[in-house]
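User: Okay, second chain of the day. Same drill as before: sequence in, structure tokens out.
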Amino acid sequence: VQLQASGGGLVQAGGSLRLSCAFSGRTFSSYTMGWFRQAPGKERELVAYISTSGRTTYADFVKGRFTISKDNPKKTVYLDMNSLEPEDTGVYYCYAFAGAPHWGQGTQVTVSS
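Assistant: Same drill. Structure tokens below.
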């Protein structure tokens, strides 16, 4: 399994970004897919994930602002981020889980105040 994250960048507070994670490998639909993030000097934390059945789970700090979705034929998971805050700055990592975790390389998100 290989994961390629993209879509990060610099945005002003209140702005939006869409992250994408392209999955390479078989049976994408069998994986729980999600996003973590890591801010400078902080531990990596869960942002959101989507189960094989499409059920979504979010960290409290992004509820109502971020939306995770996936496109099984395209083998891609998305993270739509709205109302971004400077506290959302960090490297965002895509992950896939089906018995063992797989990580992408991360994409930088910087939110300026």
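The first strand starts at residue 2 and ends at 6.

User: Thanks, on to the next one.
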